[in-house]
TrEMBL record:
Pathway: Amino-sugar metabolism; 1,6-anhydro-N-acetylmuramate degradation; Cell wall biogenesis; peptidoglycan recycling. GO terms for biological process: 1,6-anhydro-N-acetyl-beta-muramic acid catabolic process; amino sugar metabolic process; peptidoglycan turnover. Gene3D superfamilies: 3.30.420.40. PANTHER family: ANHYDRO-N-ACETYLMURAMIC ACID KINASE. Catalyzes the specific phosphorylation of 1,6-anhydro-N-acetylmuramic acid (anhMurNAc) with the simultaneous cleavage of the 1,6-anhydro ring, generating MurNAc-6-P. Is required for the utilization of anhMurNAc either imported from the medium or derived from its own cell wall murein, and thus plays a role in cell wall recycling. GO terms for molecular function: ATP binding; kinase activity; phosphotransferase activity, alcohol group as acceptor. The gene is anmK. Belongs to the anhydro-N-acetylmuramic acid kinase family. It catalyses: 1,6-anhydro-N-acetyl-beta-muramate + ATP + H2O = N-acetyl-D-muramate 6-phosphate + ADP + H(+). Keywords: ATP-binding, Carbohydrate metabolism, Kinase, Nucleotide-binding, Transferase. ATP binds at residues 25-32. This is Anhydro-N-acetylmuramic acid kinase. The keyword Nucleotide-binding applies.
Amino acid sequence: MHSHITKLYQLAAKPSRRIIGLMSGTSLDGLDIALCHIHGSGQQSSVKVEQFITVPYSDEFRSRVQAVFAKRQVDLQQLTLLHPWIAEQHAQMINQALHDWQVPASEVDLIASHGQTVYHCPKRQHQDPAWGNATLQLGDGDHLAVHTGIITVSDFRQKHIAAGGEGAPLAAYGDYLLFGSATEHRILLNIGGIANLTYLPAGETLSGVFSTDIGPGNTLMDAYVRQHFPGLQYDADARLATTGTVQQKLLAALLAAEFFQLSLPKTTGPEVFNLAYLARAQQQSGCQDLPAVDVLATLNAFSAQAIIKLVQQLLQPERPTVLYASGGGIHNPLLMQQLKQGLPQLSLTTTAELAILPDAKEAVLFALLANECVAGTTTTFNHLSTGMPAVTMGKISFAD
Ligand SMILES: Nc1ncnc2c1ncn2[C@@H]1O[C@H](COP(=O)(O)OP(=O)(O)OP(=O)(O)O)[C@@H](O)[C@H]1O
Ligand SMILES: CC(=O)N[C@H]1[C@@H]2OC[C@@H](O2)[C@@H](O)[C@@H]1O[C@H](C)C(=O)O
């Protein structure tokens, strides 16, 4: 047998695998690296996060990505150059982290790389009947494998689209494996650049699980802060927003987006929720001349209200539900306070209660997807709801 296939076969047969999960989201704050020890596969999977770090991006990294990020027109040479360059940068960050953790690369079985989304384009967003769903993540898997010496599974979203999905959110797959409960109805809420949730009704089969994007988490607040408060990347601890006043007219205009009327599950990104979207809402509501802190307070309320409305839609009085939050937004006290007030009937906590560090959750989910790609079966996801194709995802790159 070819040695690469033998290696994969041996990996699949191991009782447990050590997998590095990577996530670089829409916030462009840094690369999340989670070194995971995963036992088993499918619904028997269990994860121990051995190490976790977010390696902050340099200004150079951010500005190179921002030059093409969510833009309809870009310099094609720049885009092409970014594909291997992002992978090389990520490889260096992984190599440094492994060095600091004193873990040799030879003791890591796989890397699971999400890559950097630069454009996300579901059909319901572009609305051109001539084209289907599409999404583009940069950071090539072959380059990662060669520069780290570790077999890399990457580019997870394409299979989801090929099998009929919108390519995102993929959170349901890992949330289902890790957090599905026979007795507790759960919602896993991740507040990253875009907020998304996974609905996990309790039960033996957990049938009907799905995940969906909700709307902006931090992306609009971050973009606005970067534009109006040079030097700041985000409104740390909502210190600015807390001094502002929510403007109801602007809030109503923000909540009128067509995206909020689409059926579930659905997905979106900064291609829709960006500063041009905010400017249109300000114009429509006659709120062009607000103090910057009032706009920030309103954007904070916008993210909170979008989340509250969707969660309220899913709650049923006879189903007491626990909401486990994760992502950078949980560190925003104003946002969390509004969620508590707007969702008084459910218990609100974080994934730390389920033994997964909230900042590490998305990276862990991709490690689980890579584990399924190598050691899982396609029947694992049969109980997910429509809109969540029952497929394994990811492409395998060898280091030599
Ligand atoms: N102390 C804090 N106060 C307010 N906001 C915070 C704080 N810490 C983090 N954040 C927010 O969290 C963001 C980072 O979140 P996260 O790392 O989950 O994003 P992401 O992985 O890019 O998102 P996604 O992939 O889900 O789009 C920051 O840009 C900021 O808006
Ligand atoms: C296209 C893309 O990268 N989407 C991200 C983004 O960030 C949050 C939200 O939008 C979600 O749909 C998705 O990431 C998570 C990890 C997911 O696929 O579940």
